[in-house]
Amino acid sequence: MQGAHAFAAVAVERAAFHFDQPYCYRIPEGLRDSLHLGCRVMVPFGNGARDLRIGVVLSFLAEAPPGQRIKSIQRQLDDTPLLPEDLIQLVSWLKQRTFCTLFEAFRAMVPAGLQQRMQVTYCALPVEQCPPEALLCEDEIRFLEALRRANRRSAFVR
């Protein structure tokens, strides 16, 4: 991160178009040295802190805007920026000239292969950590046996 900024302006996914703007978030001490422009972060959004959304850091701020309740960035998702700084500056330009949000403008510039998707992987626990097979139904036992056979070769992905 450039300098010792304590706040970041973040474009948040799924923001309604008429509320779309860079939102100010506090950068936790542990992220101040590793966070860069163009890195994705998880941030609380809305009235409660339970709704976590992905955002992208658009700029750094020395001070928070007055009169705003500032929430903290929960975690950093990328070690390195997904886009260089000159492309990050284009995000606002793209939003102003097209009918999109800041985050949609960012996402449009990120190569498709870099956009991470969640992948659920199943694998079996070691035998000593599994429940007794007498408590499992027949289908669960077959599934567990298949997982144990596959553990060394691959895993089931949904």
Mean pLDDT: 82
Strand element count: 8
Helix content: 10-25%
**Structural class determined from secondary elements:** alpha+beta
Sheet with the most strands, sense and barrel status: 6 strands, mixed
Instruction: Give the overall shape.
Output: elongated
What oligomeric state is this? single chain
Order of helices and strands: EEEEEEHHEHE
What is the alpha-carbon Rg in Å?
21 Å
Distance between the first and last residues' Cα = 37 Å
Residue share in β-strands: 15-25%
Unreliable runs, pLDDT <50, ≥5 residues?
153-158
Main-sheet strand order equals: 5-2-1-4-3-6
Compact overview of the structure:
The C terminus is likely disordered.
3D structure, described in words:
- With 158 residues, the chain is an alpha+beta fold.
- Helices cover 22% and strands 21% of the residues.
- It has three helices and eight strands; from the N terminus they run ββββββααβαβ.
- It has helices spanning 85-97, 102-109, 138-150, and strands spanning 7-12, 23-26, 40-44, 52-61, 71-72, 75-76, 121-122, 156-157.
- It has a six-stranded mixed β-sheet with strand order 5-2-1-4-3-6. Strands 7-8 form a two-stranded antiparallel ribbon.
- A hairpin with a 7-residue loop joins strand 3 (40-44) and strand 4 (52-61).
- Helix 1 (85-97) crosses helix 2 (102-109).
- The longest helix is centred in the middle third of the chain and has 13 residues, at 85-97.
- It starts with 6 loop residues before the first strand and ends with a strand.
